[in-house]
Amino acid sequence: MTSNHERYSLVAILLHWVMVALIAVLFGLGWYMVDLPKGPDKGWYVALHKSIGITLFLLAIIRLRWRQTHSPPPLPLSMPSGQRRLANFTHQALYVLMFVQPLSGYLSSSFSGYTTSYFWLVPLPQWGWKEPVINELFTDIHEASSLALLFLIGVHVAGALLHALTPGDKLLRRMLPR
Predict the structure, then answer these.
(1) Is 57 a residue whose pLDDT tops 60?
(2) Which helix (H) or strand (E) element contains residue 117?
(3) Residue 157 CA: distances (Å) to CA of 74, 90, 164
(4) Which tens digit of pLDDT belongs to each residue from 8-43?
C-alpha cells in the first residue's frame, strides 16, 4: 500500500481526473465541430467548447494554486534520472499548455467578431475587435498547442502505463482514488 506522504491529495486527484475528462471532451468537440457548416448547430458546439475551455482554464488556476501550496509527492529516488527529468518536463509543459490552450482560444474568439458567453448565461468581455489576421494567429496557436498537448498527454499516459506494467512499481497508485 502507498502511504499518504507518497500520494497526491484528494483535491489534486479530483482536479486531475476532472481535467482529464474535460480535455477529452474538448478534443472530441473540437474535432467534431471544425467540419460543421456555419449555422446554429456549429454555433452551439462552438459555444459549448468555449464554455468548457473556460471551465478548464479556471480549474487550471485552482490546480496550479493547489500545487503551489501543497507539494506533490516526490518521485522515487530509485527512478532513473532520465525518467525523472522527462516526467518533470512533461508535467511543466502540460501545465503551460493548460493555460495556453484556453487563452489562445479565448483570444482567437475575441478577434473573431463573435461574442463569448459562459454557458450561454454570462457574457464575457471581448479583448479585441473583429480582426481576421489576429484571429488566425491565435487560432493557429490554439491548434498547434492542441497538437503539442495531445503529444504530451501521450507521453504522460505512456509513462503511467510503464509504471503500471512494471512489477512492484506503485507510482501510478499516487494519482488513483483509494
Answers:
(1) yes
(2) strand 117-118
(3) 19, 11, 10
(4) 999 999 999 999 999 999 999 999 999 999 999 999
Q: State how many domains the chain has.
A: 1
Task: Give the Cβ contact number of residue 40 at 10 Å.
Answer: 7
Per-residue confidence (pLDDT) for residue 112, from 0 to 100:
95
Q: Angle 74-79-85 (CA atoms, 0-180°, nearest 5)?
A: 75
Q: Which domain holds residue 45?
A: 4-175
Give one DSSP letter per residue of 40-87, joined into a string: HHHHHHHHHHHHHHHHHHHHHHHHHHHHHHSPPPPPPTTS-HHHHHHH
Helix (H) or strand (E) holding 118, with range, is strand 117-118
- Cβ atoms 12, 65 nearer than 8 A: no
Confidence of residue 5 (pLDDT cuts 50, 70, 90): low
CATH number assigned to the domain comprising residue 44: 1.20.950
C-alpha cell at 35: 467540419
Q: Among 127, 61, 67, which residue's Cα sits nearest to residue 99? A: 61
